[in-house]
């Protein structure tokens, strides 16, 4: 297990084979089907008119299959081991579905709305070839600066892809951008050979565990079957809302959720349940 943690800390992303069993995978598949029929205020169609790239967030609250997975799966235990802590909190549940032929690329980005320990567990629900899987720039979690895609620094237009809007919408308004809080992610696709890019051919039940600050992105789905991914994001008691997190706070409050978050404050409350050393829900 120590080797697992050391590789995670060094590379920022690792693949865990067969971490999720068939029963838990079926829960997630059923949950996504239910969620598409009953979307939350955070539901997004990121695929334009074709609707080939769908996502929702924080829907565990009313999708019982997601709730069961989060409570019963080894996800919390894996996250706790990776972050060398006895207790973790579930910061977010989300899922992504790219239907066959969906050309939308998940842009290179990292997740910066939380300061402090912050990791994600990405579960493959369908066979995902290396050519379609989530990719990472190895070691980029240690670059030490919050970076955003080029589209973040440009005023959105009617032609700005929905997927680009999605990956910048919770990261600060124009005044904070002008304060140069963020750097710009380099054009990795223009010179892939200049970066140590890693990724894995994945089967259902395989997981990618990654530091949220590791730069990652994914191609579209050029294959003949749907590719679904369920993600849980985890923090510790040392994690706080980043100073550019007000949009996230406002969005949660605007959706009618009972939260008590503030900039620089800890992530607490019923929406962010705590799990103990065994991965079980803490009292």
TrEMBL record:
Keywords per UniProt: Dioxygenase, Oxidoreductase
Does Hydrolase show up as a keyword for this record?
no
Q: Which InterPro entries match?
A: Phytyl_CoA_dOase-like (IPR008775)
> Which PANTHER family does the protein's record reference?
PHYTANOYL-COA DIOXYGENASE, PHYTANOYL-COA DIOXYGENASE DOMAIN CONTAINING 1
Protein name per its UniProtKB record: Phytanoyl-CoA dioxygenase
Source organism's superkingdom?
Bacteria
Question: Which SUPFAM superfamilies does the UniProt record give?
Answer: Clavaminate synthase-like (SSF51197)
The entry lists its GO molecular-function terms as:
2-oxoglutarate-dependent dioxygenase activity; iron ion binding
**UniProt keyword annotation of tRNA-binding present:** no
């Amino acid at each position: 297990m120590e080797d697992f943690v050391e590789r995670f800390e060094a590379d920022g992303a690792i693949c865990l084979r067969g971490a999720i069993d068939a029963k838990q995978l079926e829960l997630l598949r059923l949950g996504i089907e239910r969620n598409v029929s009953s979307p939350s205020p955070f539901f997004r169609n990121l695929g334009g008119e074709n609707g080939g790239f769908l996502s929702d967030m924080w829907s565990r609250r009313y999708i019982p299959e997601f709730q069961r997975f989060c409570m019963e799966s080894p996800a919390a235990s894996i996250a706790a081991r990776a972050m060398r802590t006895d207790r973790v909190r579930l910061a977010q549940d989300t899922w992504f579905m790219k239907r066959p032929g969906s050309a939308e690329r998940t842009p290179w980005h990292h997740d910066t709305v939380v300061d402090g320990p912050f990791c994600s567990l990405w579960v493959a629900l369908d066979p995902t070839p290396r050519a379609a899987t989530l990719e990472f720039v190895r070691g980029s979690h240690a670059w030490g600066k919050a970076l955003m895609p080029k589209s973040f620094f440009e005023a959105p237009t009617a032609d700005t892809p929905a997927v680009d809007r999605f990956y910048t919408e919770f990261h600060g308004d124009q005044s904070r951008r002008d304060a140069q809080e963020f750097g710009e992610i380099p054009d990795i696709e223009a010179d892939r050979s200049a970066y140590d890019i890693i990724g894995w051919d994945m089967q259902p039940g395989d997981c990618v565990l990654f530091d949220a600050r590791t730069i990652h992105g994914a191609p579209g789905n050029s294959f003949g079957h749907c590719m679904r991914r369920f993600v849980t994001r985890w923090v510790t008691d040392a994690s706080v809302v980043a100073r550019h997190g007000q949009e996230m706070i406002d969005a949660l409050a605007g959706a009618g959720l009972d939260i008590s978050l503030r900039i620089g404050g800890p992530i607490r409350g019923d929406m962010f349940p705590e799990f103990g050393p065994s991965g079980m829900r803490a009292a």
